[in-house]
Design a protein that fits this description.
Blueprint (H helix, E strand, L loop, with lengths): L22 H5 L26 H12 L19 E6 L8 H12 L6 E4 L7 H12 L6 E5 L12 H20 L4 E5 L14 H24 L2 E3 L2 H15 L15 H14 L5 E8 L4 E4 L3 E9 L5 E8 L25 H5 L1 E7 L7 E7 L4 E7 H6 L1 E2 H4 L7 H26 L2 H7 L5 H22 L5 E11 L2
Parallel strand pairs: 1-2, 1-3, 3-4, 4-5, 6-10
Antiparallel strand pairs: 6-7, 8-9, 9-14, 10-13, 11-12, 11-14
Helix pairs in contact: 2-14, 3-8, 3-12, 4-5, 5-6, 7-8, 12-14
């Protein structure tokens, strides 16, 4: 079987026969269907992955996608357009959650943009030089409209006066941008290197502190180069350092943001990077606002938040109950807080909710600012309770922050995220063994190299179909919200 590889910037040899990938078997027949068995997929798993025939899925998926309610016009600063392909290429751990999945979920559920496809195009343990050399071969066939890239964590070994800082890193960084321009990327966001874990990296202490200090040198270099090259820059280092300091203060110094070696960012820390990239792409974080006139028992919602009914009651206490239907969801944080593949702890350590996840409730006419109010939010299965004041609600309460991991959207989010994870998991296989290995595969079958290009096209069609099918899971979600006066001053 084909063995796993690491990208070093030089083309690795694949020790395999062409029938290992089943290229001829997949492509010599006239229907060009890709079977799960021939392309490395399991027969069991999520329902979303059980239909592998690309062409029927494209027809069905895109037809269904056309009926999804896209609830708001794209804001002026958003650079992501309907139908865009985003390639995410970063030097982080991508075995579980990933930046690509968080970004895909956001554009699918939070600020929906029709038909956007987010692809995890990184390779394991990749360095900047390696990414630079493979841009044309690997990303060229993808024809991405937008590329998000971040490499260079390994450069922290050397500081400002080193040969790396003065020559190698600037040269590789600049050439990477040029290569991305050559493949036709419309928008390029180059991120700085992240950081290493202050506790886990080489025993922590001075070694980790020096490494992170050196990375600020490369961050500043990258900012200068992107300005000169006319592409967007994302400072990942600063917010990651801030989030790490807060996380270790809140959850203990042993709370990890990386793998066991302290270098490659774990999925929890990748949410911080995803947030920086989302802002660089122009996301404003306005998910929805529900405004209630309490005495009148009336409410209105921004696009994506439809008020189905509102009921004012005097008994047993003054209250207004709203039935809502949402096609824009607040971002949901998943997993056990102590796990590094979870986002349910790290979000409290940086302003994700404030900047990218504002699902606001504004209530007017509740009386004195100190009046205590009970909020009940849920659906037919279960409801959650929080307390606040009339003064808070008059200013606006962010329900996504107040209810945190207990919102009516959690179960739906898990379903969609599970399907998206399976789709992106399958892409990682193709990224390594089809796109990255394209030229070597051609050498293996010199008598019919066009089979490889047909395989590349078929993989793209398959992924588009799966992406469209995941999108059909995002349907209008009904929930209820009750605003109840508990006591008045």
């Amino acid at each position: 079987m084909v063995a796993a590889r690491r990208s070093t910037g030089k083309t690795d040899r694949i020790h395999s026969a062409e029938n290992e990938l089943g290229i001829a078997a997949c492509l010599e027949n006239k229907s060009f269907h890709l079977s799960k068995a021939s392309l490395g997929f399991r027969e069991s798993g999520e329902n979303i992955m059980q239909q592998a025939e690309p062409h029927p899925l494209i027809k069905a998926g895109l037809l269904a996608l056309a009926f999804i309610v896209l609830t708001t016009p794209l804001r002026a600063g958003l650079v992501v357009l309907p139908g865009d392909t985003l390639a995410v290429c970063v030097d982080a751990d991508y075995q579980h959650r990933s930046i690509a999945m968080d970004i895909a979920n956001y554009f699918l559920m939070c600020q929906p943009v029709d038909g956007v496809r987010v692809i995890p195009a990184q390779l394991w343990n990749e360095r900047l030089e390696g990414f630079m050399t493979r841009v044309e071969n690997d990303l060229g066939p993808l024809r991405p409209h937008i590329v998000l890239a971040a490499h260079g964590t390994e450069d922290g070994a050397q500081g400002r006066e080193s040969r790396s800082a003065t020559f190698y890193h600037p040269t590789y960084f600049t050439q990477t941008i040029e290569n991305l321009k050559k493949i036709g990327a419309r928008d390029i966001v180059m991120g700085s290197a992240g950081c290493v874990d202050s506790r886990l990296f080489r025993g922590g202490g001075e070694a980790a502190a020096t490494w992170n200090a050196n990375l600020t040198v490369y961050r500043d270099l990258d900012r200068e180069i992107t300005a000169r090259e006319g592409v967007k820059f994302a400072d990942l280092h600063t917010p990651l350092m801030d989030a790490m300091a807060r996380a270790k203060e809140k959850y203990g110094v042993d709370y990890p943001l990386t793998g066991s070696n302290g270098e490659r960012l774990a999925p929890n820390a990748q949410l911080v990077e995803a947030a920086v990239f989302l802002q660089a792409l122009g996301c404003d974080g306005a998910i929805g606002t529900i405004t209630v006139d309490f005495p009148a028992g009336k409410a209105e919602g921004t696009p994506g938040q439809k008020i189905l009914s509102s009921a004012y009651r005097r008994e047993p206490s003054l209250s207004v109950t709203l039935e809502l239907e949402s096609t824009r969801y607040p971002f949901c944080f998943q997993g056990a807080p102590e796990r590094t593949d979870s986002t349910s702890a790290i979000y409290t350590c940086f302003p994700f909710n404030e900047e990218l996840n504002r699902y606001l409730l504004v209530v007017r006419g509740l009386g004195a600012a100190t009046t205590k109010i009970k909020l009940t939010w849920g659906n037919q299965e279960r409801a959650f309770f929080r307390e606040c004041t009339a003064g808070d609600l008059a200013k606006g309460v962010n329900l996504a922050a107040v209810f945190a991991t207990q919102t009516p959207f959690e179960e739906r989010w898990r379903q969609v995220e599970g399907a998206m994870h399976e789709r992106q998991r399958s892409w990682r296989f193709f990224n390594e063994w089809v796109f990255h290995s394209r030229e070597e595969l051609k050498q293996m079958i010199p008598h019919n190299p066009e089979l490889v290009e047909r395989l590349v096209d078929a993989v793209q069609e398959r992924d588009k179909a799966l992406n469209a099918q995941v999108a059909t899971l995002v349907t209008p979600l009904r929930h209820t919200l009750t605003i109840e006066v508990m006591s008045q001053p």
